[in-house]
Amino acid sequence: MDRIIIRGGRTLKGQVPISGAKNAALTLLPCALLTDEKLTLTNLPRLADVDSFGHLLNELGVSTKVQRGTDGSIGREMTMDAKSLASTVAPYDIVRKMRASILVLGPLVARAGEAKVSLPGGCAIGNRPIDLHLKALEALGAQIELAAGYVKATAPGGLTGGRYSFPVVSVGATENALMAAVLAKGETVLDNAAREPEIVDLANCLVAMGAEIDGIGTDRLVIRGKPRLNGARYQVMPDRIEAGSYACAAAITGGELDLMGARMGDMATIFDAMRVTGVDVTEIEGGIRVSANGRLKPSNVSTAPFPAFPTDMQAQFMSMLALADGTSVLTETIFENRYMHVPELARMGADIQVHGRTAIVKGVDGLVGADVMATDLRASMSLVLAGLAAKGETAVHRVYHLDRGYERLEEKLSAVGADIERLSDG
Ligand code: EPZ
């Protein structure tokens, strides 16, 4: 397994190109299943999860053609053709490696009247059930059966429009329901739907494919189903979590980074919290400039669904606050086990106490480099950020977690002054 070595203490300055959003790409890719015409996605990030999703689509009989971007963005272009599906089964050996595979369930049952997807199971940050995905599809007339570790959804006569109000805001369940509803007969109303920018990106792509959706960006989506959708060409939105992570890199190293391609509207709450720490955030031509302003001040944050502070930024923000001049209180309201970076940060000298969903972060004057273990995607980035500021050398092990969500991390950080390299254990 690879590891990343960082020699900390360097101030980062320069431009960081922001890639297409992982969590948008993973819900846009399955849209190819909704049409027998070609869907081309541009600005796709070069990430392990995107490649895995391409393999899953191939398994289902979707032909995929990947090429360098031709739309001026930094990402790749993938053209998918699901003219004839060879299978409606997403097998265990693929799903276990990428839980977002569950997002083929809604499109498959909508297009083919059936789908069989291995249950994704839990992951490091929580047990992550899919009950809301299934209840939403049942509201559209799907029959759901759970057996031998698989979920089977059938709708022999096709799906019918229905109403469903999510008891808990769920990004994935909203995505599955939305992708199913666009081909259901009649009207569907989804209440308490997730409003994340990635959902807006999905809805905009579906509209480009001929879907009829009202309430995009709100928590009430009204969809009038169509008998079929057409192909389209659609650009993936920029990754607000990648951009937020690099904003933290500027803050924690006392530097200044221009996040090229980032969109302010997606990141308002992230930047509100960063401004509390004394960081300057300003819009510039083509991006957003994040400049540190002396020692960071503490900032209290509670994660919640969009437009609140995103759970996917909690670990990275904690690393910054570990060096603030005072005590910060972080509350993680979305996932039950998203503090696995805390013991690793403590190995570097951070002073953090976890009580259930709350973390008390007492700022220290400095961190010291150490060997640390990545446990999940965003925790890994929090360790990289700590290493950038720490005195001495930090080795982050199990960086395959990072490769799932951060494209060309070492390259982007080296380009703005970080002393960072990847070593292969193999
Ligand atoms: C998406 O996961 C993201 N992943 C996650 O990003 C992100 O943390 C999460 O949304 C919240 O914003 C992708 O988009 C691929 P949820 P998802 O359904 O859809 C509970 C990253 O780091 N729930 O919004 O799985 C669930 O347990 C990843 O990029 C149910 O109870 O998240 C959680 O407590 C990590 N039943 C809460 O809802 C369900 O059927 C929110 O989960 C579904 C969810």
Automatic annotation (TrEMBL):
GO terms for biological process: cell division; cell wall organization; peptidoglycan biosynthetic process; regulation of cell shape; UDP-N-acetylgalactosamine biosynthetic process. GO terms for cellular component: cytoplasm. UDP-N-acetyl-alpha-D-glucosamine binds at R99, R128, P129, I130, D131, L132, D312, I334. Keywords: Cell cycle, Cell division, Cell shape, Cell wall biogenesis/degradation, Cytoplasm, Peptidoglycan synthesis, Pyruvate, Transferase. Coiled coil: none annotated. The keyword Cytoplasm applies. SUPFAM superfamilies: EPT/RTPC-like. One of its GO terms (molecular function) is UDP-N-acetylglucosamine 1-carboxyvinyltransferase activity. Phosphoenolpyruvate binds at K22, N23. It comes from the Bacteria. The keyword Cytoplasm applies. Pathway: Cell wall biogenesis; peptidoglycan biosynthesis. It catalyses: phosphoenolpyruvate + UDP-N-acetyl-alpha-D-glucosamine = UDP-N-acetyl-3-O-(1-carboxyvinyl)-alpha-D-glucosamine + phosphate. Residues 7-413 form the Enolpyruvate transferase domain. NCBIfam families: murA (TIGR01072), PRK09369.1 (NF006873). Cell wall formation. Adds enolpyruvyl to UDP-N-acetylglucosamine. Belongs to the EPSP synthase family. MurA subfamily. This is UDP-N-acetylglucosamine 1-carboxyvinyltransferase. It comes from Sphingomonas montanisoli.
